Amino acid sequence: MPRLSGVEVVRPRRNGGRVYAMQDAGAGAGAGRAGAPTERLIEAALVVVAEVASPRGHDVGAQLAALAGAGASVLTGLDVGARTVLATGMVLARVRAGAFGAAAELAAAETSRVADGLFGVTPADASAFWAAIAEVAVLGGDLGVAVDASRRASDAAAGHLGAQERAAGLRAVVLALEGRYGEAGRIARQAVADAPGLPTPAALCAEMVVAVARSDVLRLRANTATLARTPIPWARVMAGIAASAAGVLSGAPEQALGDGALMNGIESDSLPVLLRQLAGEWVSAAHIVRGESWRALALWQGESSTAHHVVCVEGARAVAHLGLGEPRAALRATEACLRSGPRHSRRTFPGMLLVRAVAHTRLGDAQAASLAVDEAVAIAQQVGEGTVLAPVGVASEELCDLLERCADDRPHLADTARTLASRWRRLPQLPEAAPAMPPLTRREHAVAWALRDHATVAGIATAFTVSTNTVKTQLRRLYAKIGVAGKQDALDRLEASGFFVAAGPPQE
Questions:
Q1: Which of 316, 289, 286 lies closest to 304, judged by CA?
Q2: What pTM did the predictor assign?
Q3: Taking Cα atoms as reference points, which of 381, 369, 368 lies closest to residue 417?
Q4: How far is residue 289's CA from residue 285's CA, in Å, rounded to a whole number?
Q5: Are 321 and 119 in contact (CB under 8 A)?
Q6: What pLDDT sits at residue 264?
Q7: To the nearest whole number, what is the mean pLDDT of the chain?
Q8: By CB count within 10 A, which of 86, 229, 290, 421 is most buried?
Q9: Do 220 and 212 touch, CB atoms closer than 8 A?
Q10: CA-only gyration radius of the chain, Å
């Protein structure tokens, strides 16, 4: 029977709701033995880890609170078994308390400690540790760490009920975020079916990511209902994201914009990076579907993709630029994505290529458009079983015309291209793209911002040290250039074009 620093662990006894018990073994009371407070924390960690591996709906709130409040110093001096169990519980508790930064810091420190391997630990405890590390890495958008940790969790879980399903669920999430939808879907379905209690939230989230890529609104709504009932905060956020995606895909973008908690999480940066950007994906798409591409562009200001582009912020910006009638800006926004090569998640890489294809088509470069579409469809066929995350916000007619052309010209890609075209014809129709804003001179730029600040003609004249007649002339020229007749029309046109977001205020 394994020993944790002088504490004997009685492995699962599920009678009376008692999952783990701790007994003082009476031996090993020398160096390395945990004191009573630490022993209570280890006991709390065992209970939490057991409930996370095989959700039974038990109330573990007190244990989570104790573990979330424990400092990393309590791990010092513990033997490897005790430290692994306690560190696992502390990481999980921090995640569930919404302290994602603290969870990531502790996970990184503990991962570094066992860089050469986790020895002297039971397989079930090793699997639970690596599963916790994978969960934190997924939420942080770090696919590199998530892939390795989820693999280690799966390897260690063999033969351990509960641990296997949790590891499988996390593996499925990682695969889905990589864009390997076929494999992810199969593993997630099996994990849900094999779960001895409630399905693990990770498996449900994997199903949700696959359903989003397949534009499966019915599955998304079912996922929303199930995830909303989980006690895990990040899984409930995923329920909100699933509901937003279902709303946008079914032509009801206001559903994505009406979730106050989700919007607050995006704006306050209180969500971990992956959840914030996944939510941003659908809020951005909702704005574009409503004809508010400038709002979508504003949403991504100051945001950048994680190393693996699980959510491609640059691709989302490109879609907004297309909505503003700016195909060249869309191409510029995604140049770095092309250079990222294999580091770019296949979840978003094909969609980014299709956005570029539409931009090339609008600029009259049919050859470049064809090459981009062919590559996108080939990737979908190779890793996604014909599934690609739709670049919602790009006109479905343009996408489907490009895909039909690919099917006609590339017989080996025809089935996949036509499957995508058939699915995407059902995407919400978009308002016509606004005509591109003509470039403004420095003075016109300054005058436009003065209008936004509600300055009067006299006020502008004073600020620019010119006569009121000069200001009136400059206003007439600005109105003529952007095709409007007066001040309010000018402000509406400038705002709808995203000018105030893209151009920024004039430099002093």
A1: 316
A2: 0.80
A3: 381
A4: 6
A5: no
A6: 67
A7: 85
A8: 86
A9: yes
A10: 27
In the structure encoding, which two tokens stand for residue 395, read together?
A: 């006109």
Over the stretch 210-230, which tens digit does the pLDDT of each residue have?
A: 999 998 999 999 989 988 888
Pairing between strand 3-4 and 7-10? antiparallel
Cβ-based neighbour number of residue 57 at 10 Å: 10
Count other Cβ atoms within 10 Å, centred on residue 169: 30
Distance between CA atoms of 300 and 501, rounded to whole angstroms? 10
Helices vs strands, H then E, count in the chain: 27, 3
Contact 223, 208 (CB under 8 A): yes
Q: Which two tokens stand for residue 431?
A: 């308002």
What one-letter code names the amino acid at 428?
A: P
Alpha carbons within 13 angstroms on the beta-carbon side of residue 160 total 23
In order of 370, 382, 383, 410, the CA distances from 418 in angstroms are 15, 15, 17, 11
Cα dist from 266 to 270, 299, 347, whole Å: 7, 9, 21
Write down the pLDDT at residue 191: 87
What percentage of the chain has pLDDT greater than the value 70? 88
**Phi-psi category of 117—alpha, beta or left, where left has phi over 0 and alpha has psi -120 to 50?**
left
Distance separating alpha carbons of residues 172 and 130, to the nearest angstrom: 15
Mean pLDDT of 262-288: 84
| Rounded to 5°, angle at Cα 332 from 330 and 338 | 100
Helix (H, G, I), strand (E, B) or coil at 36: helix
The most distant pair of C-alpha atoms in the chain lies apart, rounded to whole Å, by 95
Q: What is the pLDDT of residue 58?
A: 82
Residues 184, 209 contacting (CB under 8 angstroms): yes
- pLDDT the model gives residue 35: 63
Q: Could you tell me how far CA 49 lies from the centroid of its own chain?
A: 25
Mean pLDDT score, 47-66: 88
Comparing CA positions, the residue from 428, 491, 437 lying closest to residue 291 is: 428
What's the average model confidence in pLDDT over 267-280? 84
Compute the distance between CA of residue 361 and CA of residue 403 in angstroms, rounded to an integer.
Answer: 12
Residue 438: CB atoms within 10 A of its CB come to 10
CA separation, residue 167 to residues 130, 195, 239 (Å) = 9, 11, 21
Q: Which residues contact 506 (CB under 8 A, 6 or more apart)?
A: 442, 445, 446, 449
Percentage of the chain beyond pLDDT 90 is 49
